[in-house]
């Protein structure tokens, strides 16, 4: 329990640092920015305390907002992803999934990929809607969501496979 | 009573979610409705400090372009200096700006965003250096934005690449006024709207800041006309302005305080009172 808490704290800080120092400066075509910091919410232990996940993802988003002058859009997007995560699990792994057996940072199966994909789409769509905050930008929102999703998923998968936790 | 506690205990996660969601939505809506009400901004100790550290490193990568820009500006200043005797009609740069030298603060951009609809810059000088909200920010090539919030050591700038920013501008040749805004698409271009149909417009004409604004002094460069079209609905021109500045690559900037600003503001207040 203690070690998983420690792992999560380290993950929180490291992902934020990597996001702010490296990925925030990446701008493919001027507006596509991968946001792998949300990996924290994806990789959070499945059967852990839900209230702690909500609070920590709110803090995660708020810190991102602090650094990108964006009001509360990252906080809202992270919070919504954190709250709907169990439903995404149910959708991706089937209704009768067993909490104990899901390990996301393992070999990539279609179930794991579809979970990551759904999570990223949910997060990005909320984020870009709130960022534009106007219905007239809807096409722009969809394009940004689509392209950023692709790059975020690529960076997420790369990060997962680069930093595989030690096998016990 | 017991049932209420039971209800709260059972739905604690949902309640926590709703609470946090309302807080974050409040922050979002506040930041969208009026930019000065932004509570979470990068003009604070933590993010300002981190950005300064990061900038210290990345600055080295941009030394070459920064040097080029400085060399260009040096050349321009030298040419003014050497030609002073011959062309006595040319005013000094200070007079041209309409700003006393004391009212210019030299500052450095430590964070620059240009990939969203509402972009902000962070500068490393704040209220300790005399920077206040609503001061204009320019660099050697043209305008950059308007100061939004300040902390003792840092300040944020509403970039001209912000769909919310509205700046008074005019066509240098014909003195036709319009308002400058951004449509959120290309970082190299901003749009000048509300230019009357009467205005004679040609591609390549220079756009400068207009005198109606109390934030910027008159005649500061913005860009050149790249494309213009006529809007049937409103009977006004919309002009695509190609910026002199590369907004994606900013180094040092000047924060200026218009000399007459307080005077104009007071005057306008008084005439409103009389009504």
Overview of this protein structure:
The complex is a heterodimer of chains A (168) and B (275). Chain A is mainly alpha-helical. Helices cover 67% and strands 0% of the residues of chain A. In chain A, α3 packs across α4 (73-93), α4 (73-93) packs antiparallel against α5 (110-132) and α5 (110-132) crosses α6. The longest helix of chain A is centred in the C-terminal third of the chain and has 25 residues, at 138-162. Chain A starts with a helix and ends in a 6-residue tail after the last helix. The mean pLDDT of chain A is 81. By secondary structure, chain B is of the alpha+beta class. Chain B has one domain (41-259): Thrombin, subunit H (Beta Barrel). In chain B, 31% of the residues lie in helices and 29% in strands. Chain B is built from six helices and twelve strands. In chain B, strands 1-2-5-4-3-12 form a six-stranded antiparallel barrel. In chain B, strands 6-7-8-11-10-9 form a six-stranded antiparallel beta barrel. Chain B is globular and about 85 Å long. The termini of chain B are far apart. Residues 86-93 of chain B have low confidence and may be disordered. Classes of the chains: A mainly alpha (168), B alpha+beta (275).
Summed up, what is this model?
Chain A contains six helices and no strands.
Largest interface: A-B, 35 and 40 residues
CATH class placement of chain B = Mainly Beta
Instruction: Report how far the terminal alpha carbons of chain A are from each other.
Output: 15 Å
Count of domain modules of chain B: 1
In helices, the fraction of residues of chain B equals: 25-40%
Shape of chain A: globular
- Total strands of chain B: 12
Mean pLDDT of chain A: 81
Question: What series of H and E elements makes up the topology of chain B?
Answer: HHHHHEEEEEEEEEEEEH
In the predicted model, the low-confidence regions of chain B spanning at least 5 consecutive residues are: 86-93
What is the total number of structural domains of chain A? 1
CATH architecture of chain B: Beta Barrel
Give average pLDDT of chain B, whole number: 79
Which second-level CATH architecture of chain A applies?
Orthogonal Bundle
Major β-sheet strand ordering of chain B: 1-2-5-4-3-12
Shape of chain B: globular
Computed over alpha carbons, the radius of gyration of chain B is: 23 Å
């Amino acid at each position: 329990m203690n070690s998983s808490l420690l792992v999560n704290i380290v993950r929180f800080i490291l992902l934020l640092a990597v996001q702010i120092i490296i990925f925030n400066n990446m701008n493919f075509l001027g507006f596509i920015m991968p946001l792998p910091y949300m990996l924290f919410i994806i990789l959070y232990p499945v059967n852990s305390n839900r209230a702690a996940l909500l609070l920590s993802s709110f803090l995660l988003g708020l810190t991102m907002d602090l650094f990108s002058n964006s009001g509360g859009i990252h906080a809202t997007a992270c919070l919504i992803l954190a709250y709907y995560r169990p439903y995404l699990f149910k959708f991706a792994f089937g209704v009768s999934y067993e909490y104990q057996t899901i390990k996301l940072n393992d070999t990539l199966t279609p179930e794991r990929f579809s979970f990551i994909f759904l999570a990223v789409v949910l997060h990005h769509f909320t984020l870009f809607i709130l960022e534009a905050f106007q219905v007239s930008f809807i096409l722009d929102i969809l394009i940004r969501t689509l392209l950023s999703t692709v790059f975020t998923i690529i960076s997420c998968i790369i990060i997962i496979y680069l930093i595989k936790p030690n096998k016990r | 009573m017991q049932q209420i506690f039971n209800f709260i205990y059972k739905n604690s996660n949902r309640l926590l979610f709703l609470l946090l969601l309302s807080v974050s939505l409040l922050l979002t809506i506040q930041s969208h409705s009026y930019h000065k009400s932004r509570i979470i901004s990068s003009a604070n100790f933590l993010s300002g400090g981190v950005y300064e550290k990061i900038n210290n490193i990345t600055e080295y990568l941009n030394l070459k372009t920064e040097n080029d820009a400085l060399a260009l500006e040096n050349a321009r200043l030298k040419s003014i200096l050497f030609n002073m005797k011959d062309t006595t009609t040319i005013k000094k740069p200070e007079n041209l700006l309409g700003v006393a030298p004391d009212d210019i603060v030299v500052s450095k951009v430590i964070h620059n965003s240009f990939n969203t609809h509402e972009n902000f810059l962070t500068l490393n000088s704040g209220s300790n250096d005399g920077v206040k909200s609503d001061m204009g920010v320019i660099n050697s090539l043209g305008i950059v934005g308007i100061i939004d919030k300040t902390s003792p050591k840092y300040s944020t700038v509403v970039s001209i690449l912000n769909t919310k920013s509205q700046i008074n501008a005019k066509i240098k040749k014909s003195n036709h006024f319009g308002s400058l805004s951004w449509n959120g698409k290309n970082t190299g271009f901003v749009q000048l709207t509300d230019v009357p149909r009467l205005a004679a417009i040609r591609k390549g004409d220079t756009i400068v800041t207009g005198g109606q604004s109390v934030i910027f002094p008159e005649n500061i460069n913005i860009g050149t006309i790249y494309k213009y079209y006529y809007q049937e609905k409103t009977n006004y021109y919309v002009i695509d302005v190609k910026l002199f500045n590369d907004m994606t690559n900013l180094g040092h900037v000047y924060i200026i305080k218009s000399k007459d600003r307080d005077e104009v503001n007071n005057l306008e207040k008084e005439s409103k009172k009389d009504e």
